[in-house]
């Protein structure tokens, strides 16, 4: 198995190497004429306005956070999917199903809570909001 | 051969970790963290835990790092760049942690070389992990979902405070 | 297989009861309009009371249940009672503050989940489960700490979270080393494998245990892992502070007790020395810094550090020549119970002094309380006296049992230090009493007291007096919790 991962490693090494070798060759052969215009951010030919750093909506963050939590849930369910068939074949299918259901149900409560509360809506209704 | 890779990946992990602390730019620190987490994932592969390695890459280096960068963007670090100064507390921290590191390293170096243990070809595979989650580690597995639920509630409860400057 | 499940469910019954009621309240809270969420106060108390009855009957049954990684012996049930009592009382306090009223029912849900985490900690027979349970408790506590939408609350929550995550790192590293040495995280397997361990693996276990001690040291705020406590206690809403000082601390102690029972017999570490030094530092530094505090919540925070130190004396006394002394562990359990009652009583009065959404934290504000509200003043004086450890209060009895155990284990020096520390602590506790009775009023008007708050104050006050006079039965309960401890 380690050998298979060796392939992955070779690919990664090649990919990283590709980037740096190209950059290095480019560095060698391209002319160097720096100007302030070249240093500005690329905005499809438009002149950039203001700073690229700006505060963006906190709702991005909340939704990303909720996404990650459910992502972790799937990560936990994944290995169970692999052995489920085997357990069914051994006649322990109901037990396995119950185990998964309990796990998923607890998180389903979380999903229901977030949904009802309106936290999945992009523009949350003000009436529900904390303050 | 394995030993060589172990040291290689450890080097990647450690240098990434050092850069996280030492780099003045917050965003670059976050990027170095990805390197460090990648190194840890490689170490997991060496330890015959491919599932954990994959999850490390997917969840930590992928998803959680996105959150890190969200927060960095949210806090707008161009206006409050981190100032690094060596305070007394920092010095004390360095002393204590290097003391602990020396003790640990000395202790580990003095260990006899452990004998090699043969493991089944299935060891650490997805199937094996699933089997364990269903049987031995059933209670911690189920309880983890409660932990995640608490995290959901936390995200909602704490997130309802809108930060000054944030549009909502 | 099904039988195994039933056994597991039965062993986990208190935990399951709390989780189920929490889930139910979570859905209800999502549907309820914001103004009505305060109604969740009653079902929360009902759930806690029901679980208490369940735990109490199980304790009386006394038959240890095992299943999976769960152990339900009297140690677990005994500590469960401490958790449930402190959560019950601190929930009553929350009724009078902003958190319990205006900000949604999540407060109650998180309280229930935090309790479930504590209960599961007491019932874990496995380091991994112990860790997850600790995380459930801590995560809920972090959120509750910054529940109030203020800069101070956010700072407190942040500090608590960062320090807690740091402590979790120590715990995980320790668990990993122990797993590496023994191939298991189960206490009973570890004790068996550890008994035959030599050389490398014994050292790995020792380092692992040391890391676990550091991790739990953070949770109980033992010196030198205490520095987060004052800021967090001050910034958190007062009912949550009460919960942290009582329930969360007791949960840290149940983990330490399990650790001592599992690891002390075979690791051959200088346990008594380590725990004695920890106890000495925690008592002394907690009390010395408390002397200078002018904010009552900070003062109670340092006092809570000092009391963790007294309880650590009992833990140090629980090992004598590598043998576990049940009586000393019983004294620790008794002390956690006693301390929870007294400190929640004191925090109840802090809540009573504040108006809704506004806390009155300065000790100077208590001036003239005796003229204003003699009963409340008397109760505060009682709690202060009890925290000092003056007879005939519960605080005295708790300390008496601890020090008796320490003397019988031959820790004379530590006993003297503990007594001296009680004398030091008298200065700051009694100065509060002095302010209440002998200082001129500053014109602060006490708000109207509610029945729930009056109940909390009078219940704790009566318990402190009654159990101070007749502690024998309760101590028997604590003692029987530790009969024939094994893993």
Key features?
heterotrimer; A: 131 residues; mainly alpha; Methane Monooxygenase Hydroxylase, Chain G, domain 1; disordered C terminus; C: 487 residues; 2 domains; 4 strands; 2% strand
Tell me about this structure.
The complex is a heterotrimer of chains A (131), B (168) and C (487). By secondary structure, chain A is an all-alpha fold. Chain A has four helices and no strands. In chain A, helix 3 packs antiparallel against helix 4. The C terminus of chain A is likely disordered. Chain B folds into two domains: 111 residues, NADH-ubiquinone/plastoquinone oxidoreductase chain 6, subunit NuoJ (Four Helix Bundle (Hemerythrin (Met), subunit A)), CATH 1.20.120; 38 residues. Chain B has six helices and no strands. In chain C, a hairpin with a 2-residue loop joins strand 3 and strand 4. Chain C is globular, with a radius of gyration of 21 Å. The mean pLDDT of chain C is 89. Chains A and B meet through helix 1, helix 3 and helix 4 of A and helix 2, helix 3, helix 5 and helix 6 of B.
